[in-house]
Amino acid sequence: MISAKLYIQGEWRESESDRRGERYNPAHLEELVGTYEVATIQETEEAVLSASKALKRWKMKAGPERGEYLFKAAQLLEHNGKELACLITSEVGKPFGEAMGEVKRGVALLRYYAGEGMRALGEVYPASDGPSLLYSNRVPLGVVGIITPWNFPVAIPLWKIAPALIYGNTVIWKPAEHSSLTAYRLMQLLEQAGFPPGVIQFVTGIGSEVGHTVINHPSINGISFTGSNHVGKQIAKAAVERGVKYQLEMGGKNPTIVAADAHLEQAAEMTVSAAMRFSGQKCTATSRVIVERAVLEPFTKLLVDKVKGIKVSDPMQADCFLGPVVHPSAQADILSAIQQGVNEGARIRAGGSLSSELSEGCYVNPTVLDHVKPDSDLARKEIFGPVLAIIPADDFQHAIAIANDSQYGLSAAIFTSDIDRMLSFLKHIEAGLIKVNGETAGVEPHAPFGGMKQSSSHSREQGRAAIEFYTSVQTIVISPAGKSLEEAEA
Ligand code: NAD
Fold it and tell me: What does the pLDDT read at residue 355?
């Protein structure tokens, strides 16, 4: 059993509070995977101040030297990948195969940002007064608060922490309660990579206490958050109040359009994968499939047959497609959203219930509903579970209008073989991640990622895009000392 600690000022420690959080395996609720510390407000403040103290020396290090720590962390993560993937599966119920994929992505992210330490940070411009040197440089923000969700407990923290560190910031990291043990193990690997004390702080606990303290602390110079819209809005308000740079990636209600000319077998296969893998708990999961009426019947049949064929299984099994959801409260919320959909007039075509064979865990059968009205809660609210709504569209333009009729704009997909439909979709769809004949879920680690509308604060993460958030641009002019322009030119 894991007993996760806090990591402050280069030391592992227990909280002075007498509170501990517990993590039970969502696949076997009787199994206690471990406990984590519930940090106090004072401990959180101490962590912020420690990151503040470490900043001066860390930002003075050369980029390639900072990169060496990240290369070492990548090596350690790769070496311990299988063990960490097992922990992800035990703690949040992610199928083991997908957990291994996430760890590999974490390794790629660390290597990518280690390399960033050797790349240019600015540009030189022609100065209007000849001999002067005019250039831009990027400098770190300072101390960055990083607040992460539970569904990608390795990849999301790393795509924030690695760029923060490589560009010279120090970090205080608050992981989600549901993934505190995985976060602790990842933090242990980062510690073994040898970062100087204070460069990364790790504080677990309650979001409204630890997270709240981080976002409101006067020594925090930037906040990067991924999670729900409800919390994201509070962060935006706190950051604007203090004039602090912030970045939010939040929820989605991602549409897939199946056009009348789509390859229906491919569309059904990929829509099921995007909607149901990891029990629909990816922010980019498909939750609405909008189908042109001309192919509604054959597509629905293909889709429903495939969903009925999914075997719900223990996530440790190598071929698991759909395991449990993260927590009994999530299970209850998902079932209640399905019931609400039925109350609104939708019809269950597959699933809609708990798994009867796997009653020891938080399993929800993969669920498909049709007769879904575009303005119903089922079509509008994020459910974050294995639930897919089929919405008919009269024609292609109507399908795009339904897809865009949402407060969210994270990812979207279309299945078509018609170039005009594809081009029209690309022109009009309101989403940050767009796939043509592909799943709404799935992100490359080196390409920009983020949403539109209420899914995001409109910044982007990953790849070169991260430099925009984790640095400030300074414009610098250096002129010759003590000489007139004419003398300098001579
Ligand atoms: P959540 O908002 O409940 O929690 C996210 C983090 O915020 C946690 O670390 C939590 O402790 C912290 N927190 C809670 N209250 C806080 C407060 N008052 N002040 C500061 N921090 C606080 O989200 P979750 O349940 O962990 O994750 C699921 C959500 O995340 C879904 O909405 C999903 O769509 C979204 N998500 C988005 C992306 C993306 O890139 N767009 C990726 C993954 C998940």
Answer: 79
- Nearest alpha carbon, ligand 1 atom 10: 207
- Looking at residue 202, its pLDDT comes to 98
Cβ neighbors of 305 (< 8 A, separation 6 or more) are none
Active site residues: 249, 283
The answer for residues whose C-beta is within 8 angstroms of residue 460's C-beta and 6 or more apart is: 432, 448, 449, 450, 466, 468
Q: What is the CA(152)–ligand 1 centre distance, in A?
A: 11
Residue whose CB lies within 8 A of the most ligand 1 atoms, among 37, 147, 152, 381, for a mutation test = 147
Mean pLDDT of 257-270: 98
Confidence of residue 489 (pLDDT cuts 50, 70, 90): low
| 482 pLDDT tier (thresholds 50, 70, 90) | confident
Q: Which atom of ligand 1 is found nearest the CA of 214?
A: 20
Nearest-atom index, ligand 1, CA of 232: 2
Mean pLDDT of 182-187: 98
CA distance 420 to 424: 6
Q: What is the pLDDT of residue 354?
A: 86
- Can you say how many angstroms the Cα of residue 382 is from the centroid of all Cα atoms in its chain? 15
Q: How many CA atoms lie within 13 A of 482 on its CB side?
A: 0
CA distances (Å), origin 94, targets 91, 148, 213: 8, 17, 30
Pocket of ligand 1 (CB under 6 A): 147-152, 174-177, 207-208, 211-212, 215, 226-228, 231, 234, 249-252, 283, 382, 384, 410, 451, 455
Check residue 112 and give left, alpha or beta (phi > 0: left; psi -120 to 50: alpha): alpha
Name the residue with the closest Cα to ligand 1, atom 20: 211
The Å distance, Cα 232 to ligand 1 centre, comes to 7
CATH topology of domain 2-250+456-475: Aldehyde Dehydrogenase; Chain A, domain 1 (3.40.605)
Average pLDDT on 144-162 reads 98
Q: Where are the domains of the chain?
A: 2-250+456-475, 254-436
Confidence of residue 483 (pLDDT cuts 50, 70, 90): low
Residue nearest to atom 15 of ligand 1 (CA): 207
CB-based contact 37:335 (threshold 8 Å): no
pLDDT for the residue numbered 486? 66
Does pLDDT of 159 surpass 90?
A: yes
E strands within 252-366?
Answer: 254-258, 286-292, 347-350
Three-class SS of residue 7? strand
CA 195–ligand 1 middle distance (angstroms):
27
Q: Specify the CATH superfamily of domain 254-436.
A: Aldehyde Dehydrogenase; Chain A, domain 2 (3.40.309.10)
Residue nearest to atom 30 of ligand 1 (CA): 227
Beta carbons of 44 and 205 less than 8 angstroms apart? yes
Report percent pLDDT > 70 for the chain. Answer: 98
